[in-house]
Amino acid sequence: MPTLKRVTEALMLPGLFLSAAAHASLERDAVYNLPSGVTPLSHEIYHLHMYGLWVMIILAVLVFGTLFYSTWAHSRRRHPVPAKFRENTKLEAVWTIVPFLILISMALPAAATLVKAYNTSDPYMTVQVTGSQWRWEYEYPAFGIGYVSSIDAKSNEASMLGSPIKPQDVPHYLRNVDNPMVVPVGKKIRLLITSVDVDHAWSVMDLGVKKNAYPGFINEAWFTANRIGTYTGQCTVLCGRGHSYMPTVVKVVSMEDFDAWTKQQLAAGHTLHIHDGCDAAAAAGDAVLKEHPAPDVCGPGTKAHWLGTGPARHGK
User: Fold this and answer.
1) pLDDT the model gives residue 282
2) Do 133 and 95 share a structural domain?
3) Which of the residues 139, 220, 250, 294 has the least number of beta carbons within 10 Å of its own beta carbon?
């Protein structure tokens, strides 16, 4: 395995060098490029993207350069009598082995990154994300907090026909919400993502997360934000006429500010309640799951059942 790792690193070296050389200029104009983001996983995804991009650029230059040169240099006007050779074994071996090595150099690090992306173990806390037309619901089972996140009032008003407010006058038009997700900096956050009506997708590229939300099914994702700030995204699955009015906003704050925010949310009444038919259960060792007091959230096929808290999982 160490030998394989050294071979992979050696094969990736040229592409990584070019990626690093272009990193600064391209990241400044991330609107034209994949953002580097603020999580370790998003950094890995970005470097894989840049490595693959430069490999494709170099191959395109070589292939099309050879094609255009051959068309010009070996045209009938320059060479009326065609060459008599039919094959070149060495050349065929080269153009078979080299692409194979290039694919290996891209596949191995990509597979390693995929393994990391699916490893949601040992989180600091879990946030359950539920999509519906056209808003997100965030639940923090460990803290008993739950609330709905909808598009902000100014964006909503500016989008209406005949509104006196122009969209260009609204900061972060269609990219702001009334209640963003709030998480502490430097902590691993696990997301449980589902939907109650149609397909949605929770996506924040700066965090390296893009996961579809399906009714009756729960997807998992995670991130560890290393920089305080506000990061925005958008539902990336066409989910109806209000699809463009479903932004995702995550606010990363210090641990002290997060503790203060949890107290504010509880004081404001943004709380969850334990249903009599839903036992409190540990969620992957990080939190106690608490469900809304409604019978239809605890039975088979519901989110409580999938999360292991419904009576179907406890023999009731």
Assistant:
1) 39
2) no
3) 294
Total domains present in the chain: 2
Rounded to an integer, what is the distance from CA 81 to the centroid of its chain? 57
Residues 33 and 170 reside in one and the same domain? no
Q: Are both 220 and 105 inside the same structural domain?
A: no
- The CATH number of the domain holding residue 231 is 2.60.40.420
Bond from prior residue into 134 cis (ω within 30 degrees of 0) = yes
* Residue 223 lies in domain: 125-272
Give the predicted TM-score (pTM) of the model: 0.71
The Cα–Cα gap between 234 and 201 comes to 8
Please answer whether residues 145 and 265 qualify as being in contact, where contact means their C-beta atoms are separated by less than 8 angstroms. Answer: yes
Residues 223 and 235 sit within 8 Å (Cβ to Cβ): no
C-alpha neighbours within 13 Å on the C-beta side of residue 177: 27
At 88-123, the pLDDT tens digits run 888 889 989 999 999 999 999 999 999 999 999 999
Q: Give me the amino acid identity at 233.
A: G
Is position 47 within any domain? yes
Considering the domain architecture, whether residues 60 and 44 belong to the same structural domain is answered as yes
- What mean pLDDT do residues 262-266 have? 91
Domain co-membership, 54 together with 85:
yes
3-state secondary structure 45-94: HHHHHHHHHHHHHHHHHHHHHHHHHHHHHCCCCCCCCCCCCCCCHHHHHH
Taking only the tens place, the pLDDT of each residue in 57-93 is: 999 999 999 999 988 888 888 878 877 777 888 888 9
CB 121 within 8 A of CB 24: no
Of 117, 141, 163, which one is at a domain's C-terminal end? 117
